[in-house]
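Bumping with the actual sequence this time:
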Amino acid sequence: MTPYLQKRALYEPFFYQRVSKNLGIVVVIPAYKEEFLLLSLMSIKKCKLPLRDVEVIVVVNDSVVDNAKTLKINQKVFQQALEWSKKNSRPRMRFRVLYKGELPKKSGGVGLARKIGMDEACYRFAMAKVKRGIIVCFDADSKCEENFLVAIENHFKKHPRTSACSIYFEHPIRGFDFEEPIYQAIIAYELHLRYFINVQEWAGFPFAYQTIGSSMAVRSDHYQKQGGMNRRKAGEDFYFLQKFIALGNFTNLNTTTVIPSPRVSDRVPFGTGKAVGEITKQQGQYETYNLSTFSDLKILVKQLKNIYKEESDWKNVALPNSVVQYFELHDFGERLAEIKKNTTNFSSFKKRFFHWFNAFQAMKFAHFARDHFYENVPVETAALDLLNERSLTLDKVDQKSLLLLFRKLDKAK
């Protein structure tokens, strides 16, 4: 076993069945009260097979604080998935289902469930003596295009230095599975997600990537080297992927599509399910960060060279008030001295600066600017403002039309 599995895995392997020496991809699916789990498994089963073999690991989970109703649902889902996996597994695509109950109150949740499944994927690769296998994160309420597995395999072949990637996604925005207010809400929320990444790119921020738990993949060796998945109950995907984004060699995979569910959910304190519930109450209205916040960030990025050259006081550099006050709040003078002390040229200075001013700091700055300088605006207003800055126009301006354009822009990256 690898050093990571010996020291950092929380459990011994759950599966000891013979593993294919041709194993290349393991898809990990956490499942908590997922009564329609089989629909997601069927979606993966329909996928065209890549050259390397595939395993799908489902982690049905609950914690010590879950009630009898939840346990009953999970036990039913587990038995259904177990029977389905026996009937639908085939030599080159195996479905494996485990049940891990009574997880700790403090850490029991999606992060820990993903970790259990991803660590199990590492065990499977270790048994197969496959060092650079691909671990794919998926959700129990998601679906995918038929080329999903092939596209993932091809992407990592085409980009051999890629440690991890974000996979293109589109929520369903019409149909008969949900009420119309749900579709309207997910249009607004997905528009926010796409605007937030695109506006960071426009500002010149180097770490602008989507971090969606159902739409990401990582190499097994890099997963272990970076300490594996965290145990957060929410936002585990954001914190996990930032480790890889900051290191470089992170990519976007846009040749296939994951289709996450737009359903309302109270399983986590924030995220898509929570946001959709709140937006439906507001009749499809949703506010996001003002473009002015990122205009200030754009100025900061452009002024980095002057900050580097300035020898007496960084405040002599022309920076927006929002940036100045944020830096003062975070003792930037001391931080800057430390960065300069450990760099010998602008290129290394810039790299070290963004090691500090990373995605977490950018998010904190956006919140600071929102609270003290620029109030949130309707998401369609912010999205249109960004398009205008990029000299892009629309014949019809509404949330759906804006979303479709942003999808087109993201797909072309």
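The tokens above came from a reply further down the thread. Residues 291-372 form one domain.
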